[in-house]
Amino acid sequence: MTRRRAIAVLGGRPGNAGADVLRLAEKIGEELARRGYGLVSGGEGGVAAAANKGCQAVGGDTLALLKWNRLSDAEDGTTWALPTSMDLARSNILNWCGDGMIAFEGRYGTLTEIGLALDTGRPLLVLGNHPFLTAEAFAAPTCRVVPDPRPEHAAELVDLLEKLIEAGEQASARPGAAVVEDDQVDESGIGLRRAIPEDIELFRRTFGDRDVLAWRALEPTDGVLSRFQHERCLVMLEHHRPVGFLEYRTEADAEFEHIRVEALAVSDAADRGREIGTRALRLFAGSVFAADGHRITAAPNADNGAAVRCLAKVGFRHVGRMRAYERHHGAWRDALLMDLVPSDLADKPPQPPQTAVGHR
Question: What is the pTM of this model?
Answer without folding.
Answer: 0.53
